Each structure stands twice: as structure tokens, then as C-alpha cells.
Description:
Blueprint: H1 2-11, H2 13-56, E1 65-69, H3 79-89, E2 93-105, E3 108-117, E4 128-132, E5 140-144, H4 145-151, E6 158-161, E7 168-177, E8 187-189, H5 191-194, E9 201-208, E10 219-222, H6 224-270, H7 273-281, H8 286-326, H9 339-351
Parallel strand pairs: 3-8, 5-7
Antiparallel strand pairs: 1-9, 1-10, 2-3, 2-6, 2-9, 4-7, 5-8, 6-7
Amino acid sequence: xxxxxxxxxxxxxxxxxxxxxxxxxxxxxxxxxxxxxxxxxxxxxxxxxxxxxxxxxxxxxxxxxxxxxxxxxxxxxxxxxxxxxxxxxxxxxxxxxxxxxxxxxxxxxxxxxxxxxxxxxxxxxxxxxxxxxxxxxxxxxxxxxxxxxxxxxxxxxxxxxxxxxxxxxxxxxxxxxxxxxxxxxxxxxxxxxxxxxxxxxxxxxxxxxxxxxxxxxxxxxxxxxxxxxxxxxxxxxxxxxxxxxxxxxxxxxxxxxxxxxxxxxxxxxxxxxxxxxxxxxxxxxxxxxxxxxxxxxxxxxxxxxxxxxxxxxxxxxxxxxxxxxxxxxxxxxxxxxxxxxxxxxxxxxxxxxxxxxxxxxxxxxx
Length: 366
């Protein structure tokens, strides 16, 4: 049967081309998708981690404790209780949050502009000054550089925050960068000024130096590292949700590939039923025929899986290079080879021909 097996590989070489292509394409698609998934998830996770630790922790870098909602993100600090808590702490506390207010800039009314607090104490200031100076008291404000660019706001401009009796005119004395996205606002005023709109204020946390004392109802105290880690876990959960969707897509691609490979082998062996019958007629046993078929499936599966794996890895690196070329501002990071996916894709493509009834004992029972 060894001679018959080798002769069969030579005689049916053209027929095996389709099977080899099917297996190679199946493995290449599965491996490439998995490769990109690993890279994307790794980049998103590492980007979220570095961004949160560097940015989110900025308002709390000089704090001993951070007071926030006990059931975040299901709830937030009660504004009245949080304001009273911050007032009791005096200069040892700095609140982060913002109020959404109508703003009139250069004669134009902007609705839904966020206004946040900026401390007059240098240790509590987390915004980075780009130009001008920080506000020193009432009637002064600083503007985020991107908001200023979008709305053509310049140093020295007069801006009206609020409407009617609640409206206040402030002068723009500086432009700042806001490295903490969760605490970012379009404009910043001193804490006493912001309290003029306390009814529309939403506070996310209060940074405290020293003992926190009695906490507001529904609040908890954490270290700055613990507070940032909690937010990081929440963002990672969002990232992991994306990774699950991507991995699910890769799994579907792999499943469809297995079906394609299995059907290709079914058609291939169905065309050779007469050959198998002839072998039985000349004395070959059922076990020998099945063993020959299995050997052919194994040879085709192994060779095509290796080719598909190499093609998939190359395609994955090519896609990453393409993404880096198209979007250089957001580069993809380097990725290691996803060994579990390589093994899984290669094994499933190699196993799929064996899953067909024609490759299992009992098919030829004569």
C-alpha cells in the first residue's frame, strides 16, 4: 500500500492543488486575523494603561487620598455633599468635575460648553500652561488650547459664561493643555467662581491631602494609585469587549475555513470512489484503503498548513505596516507571534479533512 499511496499522490497531484489552496487560504486567513487581533488588543490595552496612568492620575499626583463615588460608574458624587466636603478640607482638597453651561464667545452663543475648576494653589494645578498665565481670582479664566483653536478664542478676549442673572463675564488670561481626559473641560475658572453654578456642577472626585475625615454619603476614599487602577480596569473592560468581538470574528473565519477544507476533501475523495473500489477488488483491505486516505489527508494538511501559517504571519505583518503607513499619527505597536492561534489554526485545518465520513473507518464495508 505504500507504493499505492505514493502513486496516488503523483497521479492525483492536480486534484490536491485545490485542497492545498483551500487549506493554505483557510489557515492564512485565520492566522492573519488572529495576528491583527493580538496586535490591536495589545496596542489598545497598553495605550489605555499608559494614557490613564499619565493623564488620569495628573489631578491627584499630590494627593494622599481620592474621594469618589462608592458605586462608580453606576453613580456619582452628590454635588452638595461633595462641595461641603471640599469646603471643610479648605486648601487641603481640590475637586475635579465640570458644569455644562451656555457660553457666548465673540458674539456667538455656544451651548453645552464644559467649565471646570482650576486651583490657585500650584500643587493642585494639573493643567499645563501653554501661553499667558493662570487665573488669580474672580473674572478670569483659562481656555483649553483645542477649544480656543476651534472657536477662535485668543488671550484678552471677553467670554460670558451662563445666561441671564447667572451670566458672568470673564477675561481669558491663559491657554492650557488638559492631560487628563476624564477631568478635561473647555474652560477653567477658579473654584469660588465655579460655585456660582453649583446647581449644574457634576463632581467626579475630590483629591485630599492628609486625613479625609468624615466622608460624604455614598463616597469612598482610595489611594491615587487605587483610584487610577479602578478607572483603568473599567477601560480595560471596554477594550476586552472589543477584543472578544475581534476574536469572535477570527473564530468564525476559522470555522468557515474548516468547512471549506472539509467540503473540498469530500469532493476530492468522492471523485475517487472508483479507484477505492478497484483497490478493494485487487485485494486491498478496508483498513489499508482508509490508512492510505488518511496518509494523503495528513500530507496535504501538514504541507498546506505550514504554507498557510507562513502566509498568515506575513499577511499580519503586512497589515500592520499598512496601518502604520496610512495612520502614522496612531502607530501600531510591535506584536509577538500568536503561538496558540498558529497551533489552533494549523491543527483545525489539518484535522478538518479527517472529520469527513469518507476519512473514517466504516465507509467501505465490503
